[in-house]
Structures are given as C-alpha cells and as structure tokens.
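**Sequence with structure:**
===
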Amino acid sequence: MNKWIFAFTMMLCLPSWLAYGKEYTLILKDHLFYPAEIKVPANKKLRLLIDNQDNTPEEFDSFDLNREKVLYPGRTSVIYIGPLSPGRYDFFGEFSPNTARGTVIATEDKNADN
C-alpha cells in the first residue's frame, strides 16, 4: 500500500515540478560559488540546485531574488526562482559575504540557456 501512496504523491507533485523549466547547478566550495555567474533565460521559471561541498553550513541570501535558504554541508538544496525580467540578480552567502558571491543574469538572448 505504501507504493500506492508514494505514486499518488508523486503524481500530485509532478505538475508543479514540470512548471519549472531548466535546472541550473551551483557548487559552493571553499566558501565560493561556482560558477559565480549563471546566465538564464528571462521570463522562465527555473530550479537552482546548490551543492554545498563545504564542511560548514551556509545561507544563500538574495535580496534581488527575494530568497534565502540554509545550505547544509554535504547536501544539495533546491531554490525555485523566476520568471525573471531581464537583468542582474545578485546573491551571496550570509555566513561568508565577502567570498561567497554570485549573480544570476536573466537575458532574452537565445544563448542564455547554456
């Protein structure tokens, strides 16, 4: 019976997951985000996966994206963003604000989806 509950739950979650387009991955290592800049298509929803490879927690913070999330060590976290108007959206690590910095660049350029 548990497999039926799981299947039903997945069917309920699937439409919301599909509503978000492409996934983009950031790595947090040595208190730095890699890559420091991500180009994304404007006016699209997306999933941002952040792999914290440090041994300490960090807090993803962005006033521009109106998001904040604790990133636990050795875990991958998901942040949903968008749709974004064309522009630059800065983010930083609250526990390492001088080093853990980055930018999401939303553009209507067809090459933004790389």
